[in-house]
Every structure is written in structure tokens, then in C-alpha cells.
Amino acid sequence: MKLLFENWRNFVDSIGEAAEPTPFKSAAQKRYKAQRKRNDMYSSPPGHKNLSSGSPFETKPKRAGTDRLRFEEETELENWRKFVNEEVEEPITTLRIFDFDETIAHTRSETRVKAPDGTELTVRSQQEFEEYMRAAAAKEGIEAFDAVDALIGLGYQIDMSDFSIVKDPHEISVITDIMREFPPNSKTYVVTARQGASLGPIMDYLDELGIDSSQVRPIATQGESKGDVMVVMMKNKIMDNGKSNINRIEYYEDSQKNIDDVLRKVCEDPELDDIKPLDFELIINKVINNDGQYNIQEIEC
């Protein structure tokens, strides 16, 4: 275990600071430099690679927009070092993980697609998007969890620029009412499939809702597996008895694709059983939209 966290520290020390100034200009981003003691994570394709190594990222920062892991200024790098030490010295027991779109808020974001044969489509919902991606991936023989990059490589034009902002948001209060409370011995994350550029606007929006964004850590997976992210979180927190100190994960999500992925990788994977505490709980709260009325369906591991 000591070796695992030493590897983390060595990794942080090795990457240094991105050379160019931050391209993000939101109020939340500016506050982070002076006030936040936690750091944002940005992931871009191909995203998480060598998860078994302990670190979910394996390359040095690139220019803005392509970073797998980007730190803003030396203070943010130092905050990440403190975070690593904090995970060793002050382990928590509960992870609260919230999706953003159709979970925290409904937005008017659209995805515009043009296929190589000239067919054009505007996708206006998560379900529509997943159905189109699944059909297009099957047609092209693609088996990736997220087929966007592979399809783009085959000539598909996929415009997701709406998702770099929070466009005309409407709060889903059944979730945000839960999010406003920060129980002891827990940490709260927003884990979104969006790109890293959206994290500043998302954190600004949380502040507008009266949610203390300084207590929330945002992660942009850009379509990568959320189940893999949770497995890494559990493996990075191992106690002397060989078990993860995470004995409860509360996951709030609308996408059945993501829910199935988390069930398969966190609940059903026998390889994870060795580090699960005996009292481990995975509580999935599926957010369901019934003609603008949102409710929660609880799914247990």
C-alpha cells in the first residue's frame, strides 16, 4: 500500500505544470487558484488506460483540450499532493458520486451528427444519443465503451460543443436537495461524461444553486467508463487488513448504460471481492424523468 501511494507522489512530482496559461475563464476556475484545496481532473480520449497500476492516467500533460490530467499553476499541483496525503492519513468511508446531465440538471444541450453518407441528425436526449451511438458502433464493428472517437476516425462529424457550457439549465431538485448535504466521513464528486472544459461552468452552476462547490470534486471522463473510475477510487484506499476503507458508494445517474457498467465492474466483478469490506454497499439511485417530473429508483448491489 505504501508503494502504491509513493508511486502516486512520484507521478505527481514528475508531471510538473502545464506550460500554457489556463484557457478557462469562469469565476469558479479563478476561485480555485486561491480558495480550493482540491484539484479538478480532466480526462480526454483515450482516457483511463492502465488502471491496475493505481494511477488512472499514464501520460504527461498536453496542450489545453487534449490533457489527460491537467494542473493549473504550482498551487494546484501542491493541492494534488495534499490530496494524495489526505487519502492516506484521513481515509473516508463513503463516496457520493453524481452524474450531471439529467441528474443534477436538465439542459438544452444538443449533439449534431453527420454520417459519412451525408445523413444528418440532431440528438436532444441522453437516451437518443446512446441509441444512435450503439447502432452506429454496431454498424461499423466498433466495440469500445464509448464509440465517439472511433466513429470520428471513420469520418463521422459529431458536434458536442453544447456540452462545453451549461446551456439553459433547469435544476432537478430531488437530486440537488440531497447534494446540498455533506455527511461526515464522505466525499462528493460530480463525474460527468463531458469534456474538461465544462467543469468550470458546472461548478459555477452549483454555486448558483447554493451548493458549496468547494466541497465537490469534479471529474470529466469524456465518455470513459465510470465503473473503472470507481474501481480505481476503491483500490487507492486500502487499509491494513487489505480491505478498501470505502464501505459505501452512493451513485446518482440517469443512464442505464452507465448503471449497467457500474454494476458489472463494482458489484459483480469477483476480482474486486478481495478488497471489499464485509459491510460494503453500492447504492445506485437511478434518476427517472416522467414528462418533466423526476423521481429516484433505488438499485442495490
Describe this structure in words.
Strands 1-9-8-2-10-11-12 form a seven-stranded mixed β-sheet, with helices on both faces. The protein has a three-stranded antiparallel β-sheet with strand order 5-4-6. The chain has a two-stranded antiparallel ribbon with strand order 3-7. The protein is an alpha/beta fold and 301 residues long. It has helices at residues 2-15, 27-35, 73-89, 126-140, 148-153, 173-179, 199-208, 226-235, 256-267; strands spanning 41-42, 94-98, 105-106, 111-114, 120-123, 157-159, 170-171, 186-192, 216-220, 248-253, 281-290, 293-300. The relative contact order is 0.15. The longest helix has 17 residues, at 73-89. A hairpin with a 2-residue loop joins strand 11 (281-290) and strand 12. Mean pLDDT is 79; it is low at 14-24 and 36-77. The protein has two domains: 2-103 and 169-300, no CATH class; 108-164, no CATH class. The chain has nine helices and twelve strands.
Helix/strand-derived class?
alpha/beta
Structurally, the number of domains stands at 2
Please report the distance between the alpha carbons of the first and last residues: 27 Å
Low-confidence stretches: 14-24, 36-77
Keyphrases for this structure?
single chain, 301 residues, alpha/beta, 7-stranded mixed β-sheet, 3-stranded antiparallel β-sheet, 9 helices, 33% helix
In short:
By secondary structure, the chain is of the alpha/beta class. Helix content is 33%, strand content 19%.
